[in-house]
Amino acid sequence: MLSMPGNRILTAGNQVFSFASAEVSNVLPAVECIIHIKILFGEVCLMQFTITFMNGLINPRLRELAHYFGNELSKEERRNFDDFTVSPYHNKSETAGSLCRYLADRAQSGSLDSITEKDLRIHLFGGASFNERKFRSLCTASRKLFEDFLIQIEFGKNDHQRKILLLDSLSSAGLKKNFSSLLGQIGKENRKNYYHDLNYYTQSIRMQKTVIENLGTDIEADLTKDYRKLSDLADRQFFLCKLELVNSLLSRKYHVLGDAEFQMNMLSEIRENIEENKDLLRRSEIAIYSEYLILQMMMSDDNEKYFHELYEYVSQNFRKFSHAGLELVYYPLVNYGSNRAALGDGIFLNYVFRIYLLFERNGFYSNLRSVQDLDFISIIIISLKVGKIAWAEKFLKKYISKLGKSSQKDNESLAKGLISFSRRNYADAVKQIGKVNYLNSYYYLKSKETLIKIYYETGDMVALMPLLDSTRHYVKRRKAILSIHHDRYMEFLRCMTLLVKIRQKDKGDTFKLRSELKRNRNIISSDWLAEKLYELEERQ
């Protein structure tokens, strides 16, 4: 073994080599090596040592950005980025711009990881060799270009923020006429903005401070009203920030059943203040009031009352919400309703479907950049449970492209399988479900649950019994992950076993199964089980 510093090891045949170069050792995990060894006079000589180390030089941060720009930007954003990289105002290095575009193109084609030194020489350096240190500097410049454009995207989305910054500049420059004109324009726009989110308050506070600083040059000016306005803005920003924080935490900590015991500094004071000014905030502060209703829905004893009030409030003010604001109320509404339905309150299936209808009719899903996998398949499942098969099919066709490419086929297959099952087309349902890769426990169990019901409906007991057994073992192993759904699935499998025994005229007890279904309404597919039991009792 060669005696060299460092602990990176390469093997070639029976020989073992370590390398002293720190720069090379840093890239060895992603390196492809071709080593030709010749042993002469007892010494080891490296006749040829070729390392394709570009994957190591293109560091993970740059690689991640290239992948995002190649696959996630819209066509318009990508065209704007290409223009951005060739603009001498934004980019002083033509080669850095070329590298950005080249990496994004390779990421889009799925060949980012196979870039070689020769590829870079041809596309960036006219076939000439290049210095490794300079290439690393070029990568740093390219990464900064990617990052600067992301800032441009966010900055371009917020015209209000740009005007506040301009107001600061006009005030600092002492351009009073332009300052007054722009201030009036911003005030007029603010009066048309019904949804005041955290960004609105941040910018409004900055604007109000600029106004006070501008007016404060007159030592005799009475600024009491201006300071009071600034104080009110600061209070409301604090209220909203605190409510969003608490609601986000509660949505993770609890299964949205209400009456959650939870304390955080100033929370009770915020609730009291909102309740004292309820009518005013309901009319003028949509973001604060909707977050207050979400908090009450999760923490109040009378949580169902606030669920209905939140739905009505969103329905009445839908057009006044921003899209981001709609997302903040959509998921708590759906989660609360779905959890109540899971615990046996079947009427909540209709309430949740009503939420889907409201948001779909008003273009919410169309305006989403992407739809979450679990939300998509839950929409299909709940619409089928309330008998809206045609609506589910339409939703599937309209929004399947909104899912990520990696999960699109699995969601489509599972959705089609569930729709076919609802239409009693069991052969096609089995075919579609057979195409599903199990992305997580939810997809696995929903697929197995549907197959169990299909095998029962078709009388295929040879397939059914082993499936019941394997699914039972799967659920037992994942008790911690499944949480409240563990018991629901275990009860389903137990009731399913009882149902099979009754059907086979074994030792089945119809009274026992009927009593269990009446006692425990949160069993998975409880309505289907009750229907099958009724069919058996009719035959007896």
Plain-language structure description:
By secondary structure, the protein is mostly helical. Helix content is 70%, strand content 5%. It has 28 helices and four strands. It has helices at residues 22-27, 54-57, 60-71, 75-86, 94-108, 117-124, 132-157, 159-173, 176-192, 198-215, 224-253, 267-276, 278-284, 286-299, 303-316, 323-342, 347-361, 364-367, 373-385, 389-399, 405-422, 426-433, 441-458, 461-477, 479-482, 484-503, 510-519, 526-539, and strands at 9-12, 15-18, 32-40, 43-52. The strands form two sheets. It has a two-stranded antiparallel ribbon with strand order 1-2. A hairpin with a 2-residue loop joins strand 1 and strand 2. Helix 21 runs antiparallel to helix 22 and helix 22 packs antiparallel against helix 23. The chain is flat and about 95 Å long. The N and C termini lie far apart (83 Å). Mean pLDDT is 84; it is low at 1-53 and 255-260.
Which properties best describe this structure?
540 residues, mainly alpha, two-stranded antiparallel sheet, flat
